[in-house]
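Protein entry
_____________
===
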Amino acid sequence: MEDERKLNDAKAWNNKGSVLKNFGRNEEATKCYNEAIICSDEDIKIDPNNAAAWYNKGLALENLNKYEEAIKCYDETIRINPKDVNAWFYKGLSLSSLGRDNETINCLKEVIKKDPNYAIAWFWLAHAYQRLGMHDAAIDSLKKALELDPSLEKLLS
């Protein structure tokens, strides 16, 4: 019964964090995601393998431009669920924001390996290649992105 209560509490904290994040209240959201993982009042782990809380915390931290911290959260999400393409994708975006283009490319390739139709991953892969001066790879990736989702063309202007 106690474990079930903890899991329900973790879900509630995660949901509250998501609502706050959607209203742009990322600092408060981050605290809620922390509560979903570790209850600060009792200093006990509620659900340390809560991939959703780790992922959402990463998004909130990314919104706060705390990219290094966000990457750690995405790493935890990936540790728990290596198939989570969104965690791989947003880790790649955080790495890109830090100018770590080779690592960005590795993350985005992982996304594409798991989901070859993830158009926006192809788009950001093209961006990373371009920043590294790998123009042919950038063009090929951009062509693939636009083939999968022609509406991405609006991001080019």
In short: The chain has two domains: 1-66, 83-157.
